[in-house]
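User: I'm putting together notes for a lab meeting next week and I want to include a structural view of one of the chains we've been expressing. I don't have a solved structure, so I'd like a prediction I can at least talk through. The sequence is below, exactly as it appears in our construct file.
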Amino acid sequence: MQQLWYGLFEKQLSLLEEAEGGFDQFTRSYNSFGVHRMPDNSLVFKEWAPAAEALFLTGDFNHWDKFSHAYAKQEFGKWELHIPPNEDGNPAVPHNSKLKVSICIGCFVCFIYLN
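Assistant: Thanks for the context. Below is the predicted structure for the 115-residue chain, given as structure tokens.
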């Protein structure tokens, strides 16, 4: 039984190393989650919601349209949304905007406040 568990552990560790660049890199994932402004003023939103079927960003920047900004599903329960800057080069989501992440699980939609 112990060999079975160790074999499962090794398999998961191998997947983690392949997808995340190693266990150490995985433990630093807090550096990449949340909201990040890029040098070109685009914004990257990254969340972890392994049970979710869909994620959407809503807020005063998009007049609270619940479904206009959908996240893309990544591996291992990660979700990512890239929002390009406005035509004038400013971020599309102004500083101090009120934001929510809509998380769809089955037929339920939960809201999580970001600010």
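A couple of points you could mention at the meeting. The radius of gyration is 17 Å. The mean pLDDT is 87.

User: Perfect, that's what I needed.
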